[in-house]
Structure formats: C-alpha cells, structure tokens
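Recall the central idea of this unit: under ordinary conditions, the amino acid sequence of a chain determines the structure it adopts. In this exercise we apply that idea directly, starting from the sequence alone.
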Amino acid sequence: MSIRIRTILVIVFTNLAIILFSVSAGVIYVSNSIEESQEMDLAMMANIADHFISSEIEVLKLKADVLAQNLTVSEDTKWTEVLTSLETLFPEFIGMAVLDADRGLVASAGELPAVPELMEDKYIKRAFAGEKVISSTMPSTHGVVFYLAIPMPGAHRRILALTIPGMHFAERLSTIVIWKTGHIFIDDEEGHIIANARREWVQNRVNFLHMSQTDKQYEEIAGVIRQGVRGETGVGRFSISGIPRICAFKPIAGSKEGWFLGVIAPLPDSPFRDINRGLIMVGFVAFLLSVVTAVIVSTFIKKPFEEIEVLKAAAEESSKSKSNFLANMSHEIRTPMNSIVGFSELAMDDEISPKTREYLDKIVENSKWLLQIINDVLDLSKIESGKLELENIPFNLHDVFSRCQTAIMPKALENGIQMYCYAEPSVGKKLVGDPIRLSQVLINLLSNAVKFTNFGMVKLLSSIISSTDEGVTIRFEVKDSGVGMTPEQISRIFEPFAQADSSTTRKYGGTGLGLPITRNIIQLMGGKLMLESISGIGSRFSFELTFDTIDVPAGASDVEISTDQVEKPFFKGEILLCEDNDMNQRVICEHLARVGLETVVAVNGKEGVDMVQSRMKNNEKPFDLIFMDVQMPVMDGLDATRAIMRLGSKTPIVAMTANVMTHDRDFYKTSGMSDCVGKPFTSQELWHCLLKYLTPGSPQIINEKIENRPTMTDEKLYLELRTDFVKGNQTKFAEITRAVDEGDIKLAHRLAHTLKSNAELIGKSGLKEAAAVVEHMLKDGSNLASEEHMNALEAELNAALKELAPLLYGIAAPPSPAFDEGKAREIAELLEPLLKGGNTECLAFVDSLRAMPGSEELIQHMDDFNFASAIAALAELKKKWGCG
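Accordingly, the structure predicted from this sequence is:
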C-alpha cells in the first residue's frame, strides 16, 4: 500500500476515532460520574448506618451489663423480683430471663421472657461459652424477636437472656432517610432479612438466597447477598422487576454475629438515550471534511514519509549491529577477566607479604566489580537484540530470598542499615519460572536501595495476590528510607546508562544499567516495574508476576518463611511446654510470655500426654502448640509425641532440643513432630517457628495483657539462670558418676545432656563442650566415656561452680582483674571489622571480652549473631572504655 493511501486512511480513521471517542467519552464520563457519585453517597450512607447500628448494639449490650450487675449483687432467690423492678427502666427489652446450663430457667420477667428450649440455639450456646451475642430473629407468639444473651458475672454457666422486639433495628433504620425509593436493610449471617422498610419481609424472615434457588429473577440480588454473607465490603448491581438498582454493602463493625447491612437505590437512566440527532449530524459533516483534508495533506507529506521509511530501516540495522558488537565484546572481555580473578585468588593462598595481599585483594574486588558491569552490558545487549531467554524450572521462593539476603546483607551491615525480608508462605506448591533472573531483579533493586540509604531500613517483601490450583500471582516490593527522587529524576531513571543526575555517579558510582535491565527482565516475565519515590523520604519499587505452580514432592516441607529478621510478633494463645529442665523452663516461658503467649509446663512426657488427654476428655480448648523436649524422665519426647498422636490430637508438636542435625530432624518428623527448634535459640528463631503455626494478632490488644504481667529484664533473667545453675548443679557430677557405676547409662546420658544445655544458657562454653563429649560417649546405652573425659567434665563444672559460688549467698562475684585500656582498644579494633562483615570468627573474642566491664550485652548479641546490635553495643563500650 502506498504512502499516500496510508496517510489518507490514517487521517480519516484518526478523525473518525476522535469524533466517536469524544462523543462516547463524554457520555461515559457523565454516566460514570453519576454512578460514581451515587456509589460514594451509598458507601458513605452505609458507613453512617454502620456507626448508627454498631452504637445501638453497643448500647444494648451495655444496658444488659447493667442488668446483669444488678442481679449479681442480689441473692438468687430475688432475681425475679429484681428483673420485674427493672422492666420500666429498660423498655427496649420485652422480656428478661436468667438461664442456667444445668437447671434451665432460673428467673424471668416481662411480656416475652426466654424459655428453656432456647438453650439449644447456637447463639445462646455461644453466650454460655463466654460471648455477648444477639441472635437472629426468631418466631414468637407476637411475631419475630431477637435475644440478647450475655454471661452472668461471677456465676458459672449462667446467662442473662433479654428479649428485643423483632422490628427494633428496622425502626431505628427508618429514622435515616434515603432519596427516592432507596432504603437500608440488615441481613444475618445466613441471608435472612432482620431489618427492612418492608415490615412483612422482616416478619417472614425473607431470604433471597433461598428464593433464588427456585426463581431466577432473584439470582442477581442473591449474588450481592452472598458477598455480604462472606463479610465483604463493596458495591453491587442487580435488577428486580426490570428496575436496575445499586447497593452498597458492608459488615456491621459492632456485630460479632456476621450481620451486614446494605443501602439500596435505583440506578439513573443511561445518557446514551438522550444523544441529540443534531450532534450526530455535526459529527458526520466533520467526518466528510476529514476525508477531504486527508486527500490534500497526503500530497504534501508523502515524500518525507518515504524518506523516513529509508532512515528507519537504516537505524534498525545500526541498532542490531551495535547490540551484536556489545554482546561479542562482552564475551571477549569476560574471558581474561575471569583469569585475572582466578589467578589473583590462587596467589592469595600462598605465603605473601601483607601489603601484597592487600594489593591482590583490591585486584579481586575491582575485577569482580568490572565483571558485574560487563554482565550488565551483556544483558542489555541481549535484551535489545531479543536473545535473552528465561528458564522455566521449579523453584522455592524461600531459596531466592535467602540468596538475595546472603548477597546484600554484608553491604547493609557495613552501612549500618537494618535489612528486613519476608516472603508470605505458600502451602504445598513450588513456583515454576526463572529463579536466577528473579534473584538478579531483586538483588539489583536491593543493591540500589542499600546504596542510596544512609540510615534506617531496607525491606524486601512478597505477598500472594491471588492463587488457583494451577498458578499464583505474587507482588514483590523493595522499600527503603533513602535519598528518594524528584519527579524529574524518576522520568529518566529507567534510561540505559543514565542515573538520577550527573552527581549520582560521582557520589554513589554505578553505570545506570541496573534499573533498565531489571525493568526489561520483569517485562519479559510478564510484569511491570512500578516506582514510587519522594525526595528525602525514600523509594518503593514493586511489581507483580504470575507463576505456574506444581505440587511439592512427598516428604518435602510444605511451609516456608523468610529466614531473615522479622518484626516482633504478638500472639494470643496457650502453649504446652514439655521440659524437665528448670532453667530451660524459665527461659522458654519468658520468651513466650514476651510475645503474649501463656505457657503450661509439664515436667515429663507422660505428664504432657495426660494434660492433652484431660482437655480432650473434658471438651476443653486444645493447646495451640506443643513444644516437646526430646530427652525427659518417665517418658521421653518421642514416645510422648506418638502417644498424643494416638489420642487423635491435631495440635502441632515442635521438638525443642539441642540435637538438631539433619538426621535428627528427619527422625523427629518420622516420629510425628511437625518441626524442630534448637536449644539455645534466638528470639528470631522462635518467632519464625511460631509464625508457621500461629496467626499473629493485633499488638495493641495483646500489649495490654503483656504490660499487666510482671516481666523481667534480660540481665535479671541471666542472673537468675546463673543462680539456679549454681544451686542445682552442686552434686551433678556425683549423680552422673553414680548412674554410670550403677549401669544406668540412659540416666547418665540425660544428666550430661541437661548439664550441657544449662551450661550453654549461662555462657560456659568450656563446660558445655566437656558435657557434650561425655553425652556423646554415653549415647545409645554404651559407656565409652574415659577417665580423661570425666576428669575434664569435673574440672570444668568445679570451675564454673567456684566462679558462681557468691550467688549462693546473694553477694557480688569477686572483682575482675584491673581494666587494661590498651588491651580493650586492641580487641575493639580487631573485633569491629568482623562484626561489620557478619563474620562468625568474632566469637573467638568472647573469652577476652568477659574480662571487660559491661560487655555482657555485646557477648549476647554476638552469640545470637545479631551483628547490627553488636556493632551498636561495641560503639557504646568503646566510649565507656575511652577508646571511642
């Protein structure tokens, strides 16, 4: 087709599209504006009605509390008399009754008091269980009624049941006026109408969900009702008798019974019906004029278009050649660069001078940086030439996050930035995609976030947006509290070889290729990279990707969570701890209490089994989680786990033991345990385990409970643990040797195991190692412990007891040797780079630090591998030591 014909067609169809679009857009805009305005009005009206009804429910429950309080201060025999005297003060209630779970009706007054048969109602049963509830409408001799039921304070298994007229809430809603034929309604959790302008619908408990099963004209409104029953908030449309209507619905905030309300109004007529014929004629004339204009204009612009076609072809060929050249050059440069890095690392293994080692280290560091630049150029050239291919293999998102954490954490620690990662768990599925390219995307974004953040936090988050049996859509976010960007900088940040401004390269370095490559890889994966940034506040990059999923093979873990640090969670629940060691009991209970959990302690496996069995027999609430020590007297943790499983308990059981090797974990799982937590554990390790099996609650609610509970500081807890140790281990070595002499190797093994665990709790590494050796030598019922092993254990235990002996008399320990400021400065200089690099070799300095005043907190952070806190603690100590 010639350039001229194409030009004419483009102009004609462009003008036609503009005319149609303008008319349609205007009409649609008006229609949408009217509907949006009506939606907003209805939603606002729904919120007003929600506040109104929620307040009414709250007032009714408060009045019920007052009635119950009046009863509890009177004798049971006078309750009927008290109820009768209070009738006139509470006209909202047309009947009052006290029901006893065992005796039935205890006292009553009013026109329609509750009857004993009401005790079988599901709402009344919830009241006996301790809730304040309002039932749905129920039939009575005077039409339908509600029942408000609350537990009687101080009275076991007794409730106060108050009768409310069935039209109570409908009458309250009638005071709110809706335009035209609109009205407000309330439905219960099963879809029955319990408040409506049509009184007969309330009296007959009309249910459109039931009606739609036999009459299809109610199917649309039934769809809206189903959303409300599910607890959703939204706006729906439906037609009844040919009249279109709009309905805003939401759950009633003050109702715990699953009620929701809706505001209904008729929809306006479509503006398309009112388009003027004259407007159509004007549009037609404009279209004809556009045809004439197109013919004339095409004559003048034909030649430039033909030249553009030639230039375009030349530009495409040039771009292709450039991409091929970059790809080839990148490959050519990578080969010698790999050799440089490899031979430099080999040379560093030889005996060389410190200065030469420093030079080689810088060569390796800068060579790797240059390789990264080359890889970026190669990726960009592949993207431009269309040669970048994506893998499609099964992978675990947890592994991707772990890889990103390993790559970025050292730089974050060096900059003093807290890094936080969390991947929402996906149950029983693996993703199918390209984990390497996904890691590259996330590392690029995290690297930028750390580079441009001077203080604060960098977060990597993922959450499941939607999922099916075949796939899942996941949203990824990288947020930082860094320098941020202006709108002008954002507009060019995704251009290759460009950064926010020219000063960025000078100050922070970089080629400007990371974000363009990241955006293109995300696009190849089917997503879109979004950026929100405020200068001086920080930035947030986000994107959504859809992955196919496959089932996890049998035996594989079906729950994965991030291994990085999480914010302190809060829970509401009850934990059973099966643990015979007093010191471990104290530590574990304190950790659980600090996140809001109550703990019931069993000193052996049999006692734990009995507690579970007792709760099941009495139909009491089961424990939310069971922590099970493996080695205990009477019945060990493995036998206890099997016994609990035979009872049919569904409560997850988590092994809590010092033996956490891979074969140990596998053995625990085959015995029925869901998971394993090592001893000693860090707070983060415990929180990660709890998050697998418990749902965290609102910190504001649970904090109230925690704040009212007497707690102890870490220093006080540590002091008490040491005191307990010196008190409880005076004869421990004699007990171990006596058990060995009597041939009770199992008992001796358990005593050594307990001593090892306790020594680790109070930081006695030498004693811990000596006890661990004896424990291993007594394993499997065989006594392989030599006299040398036992002497070493006795010596370490005696040394620890001697050091802690002053705690038996409540006096301070002997003074430490004189403080050596020079030695402290030397240790600080050697320790600081190890902490900043996250190097576990820092633990070699623990013994030296114990001689330094105030170093307990630093040692604790090092033991927990909490390097960021350890760096801060070291900085404070340097100030105190005078070497800051």
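The first strand starts at residue 95 and ends at 100.
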